[in-house]
Inverse folding.
């Protein structure tokens, strides 16, 4: 796959990665900048806290850099998001062990994972869970934050990471059909939660 | 920096709804990357690598120790024989082992300043043992 080239210098992610390995410090800075929005967006959707997201963002890159030989075949994004996903999952597991979070459902739509409401209660989302967003984007972000964990992961990996469903399935360690179902249920809940916004959004799309 | 994030042909493969949602989310402002982020990442990576090396070294040390223990066990079995007979140690081998004692020289050197005191103590003890307290309690010899 050769569609990961930055428009600035025409280098692929792998070229940049290797250049950094040879001591070109700027190559890492360019990669970090390139993946800033998708990776930070993905992480902040889970923690809701910009400081924590920043911490995870740095940790994700550090873990990737600690194993430079692991990235030999593009694309870079699925590998990075896998590391970020595992960080977030570790965090959730820890919270669950400590009793700070209820047990997570599979997010496949068969069960009520959102407190039995079926449709996320956007108004119930605390302000600090809302990523700095604007108008429609802000409301979408809030609705996404109210999705069950697995659906939120799937949605965010797809929307923030622009990953293929096959790659999401590998990251989440589940069948492709499960991922597709999670995405379908996530979109259905968003449509219901953002019915009015969807009308507005349809006009601008 | 303007970049191409369409690494997986998202724009082509996604539904219109997905594309529009993605664009709406992308329009949200993003907090700027704090200064020193890249340096922080490199620092963390170095720490992770160091920790990984330390773990590998510890694992290597543990396996070496286990191997040494296994060899010692095997050697002990070989010396005692399969029935667990007591090790055979001839007088020559004991003398030889004592002669080859790597600590003997260091020990002698370390104790040499006390030789005179040891001798004096030994003389005192011998004299004390030779006393006959029952015969005459007042006849305590001068040491």
């Amino acid at each position: 796959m050769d569609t990961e080239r930055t428009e600035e210098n025409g280098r692929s992610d792998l070229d940049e990665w290797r250049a950094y390995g040879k001591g070109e410090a700027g190559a890492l800075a360019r990669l970090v900048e390139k993946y800033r929005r998708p990776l930070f967006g993905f992480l902040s959707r889970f923690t809701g806290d910009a400081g924590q997201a920043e911490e995870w963002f740095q940790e994700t890159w550090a873990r990737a850099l600690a194993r430079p030989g692991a990235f030999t075949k593009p694309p870079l994004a699925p590998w990075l998001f896998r590391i970020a996903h595992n960080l977030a999952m570790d965090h959730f597991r820890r919270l669950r062990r400590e009793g700070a979070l209820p047990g997570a459902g599979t997010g496949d739509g068969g069960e009520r994972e959102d407190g039995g409401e079926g449709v996320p209660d956007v108004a119930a989302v605390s302000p600090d869970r809302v990523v700095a967003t604007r108008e429609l984007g802000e409301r979408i972000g809030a609705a996404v934050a109210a999705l069950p964990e697995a659906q939120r992961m799937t949605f965010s990996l797809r929307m923030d990471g622009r990953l293929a469903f096959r790659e999401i399935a590998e990251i989440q360690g589940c069948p492709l059909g499960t991922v597709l179902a999670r995405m379908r249920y996530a979109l259905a809940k968003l449509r219901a939660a953002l019915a009015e916004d969807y009308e507005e959004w349809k006009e601008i799309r | 920096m303007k970049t191409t994030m369409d690494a997986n042909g998202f724009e082509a493969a996604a539904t219109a709804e997905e594309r529009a949602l993605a664009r709406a989310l992308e329009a949200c402002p993003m907090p700027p990357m704090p200064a020193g982020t890249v340096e922080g990442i490199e620092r963390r990576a170095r720490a992770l690598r160091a920790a990984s090396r330390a773990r590998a070294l510890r694992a290597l040390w543990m396996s070496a120790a286990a191997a040494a223990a296994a060899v010692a066990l095997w050697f002990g079995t070989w010396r005692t024989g399969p029935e667990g007979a007591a090790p055979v140690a001839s007088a020559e081998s004991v003398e030889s082992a004592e002669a080859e004692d790597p600590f003997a020289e260091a020990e002698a050197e370390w104790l040499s300043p006390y030789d005179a005191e040891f001798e004096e103590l030994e003389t005192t003890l011998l004299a004390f043992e030779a006393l006959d307290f029952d015969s005459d309690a007042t006849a305590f010899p001068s040491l």
In short: Residues 7-103 of chain A form a domain with the Rna Polymerase Sigma Factor; Chain: A fold (CATH 1.10.1740.10).
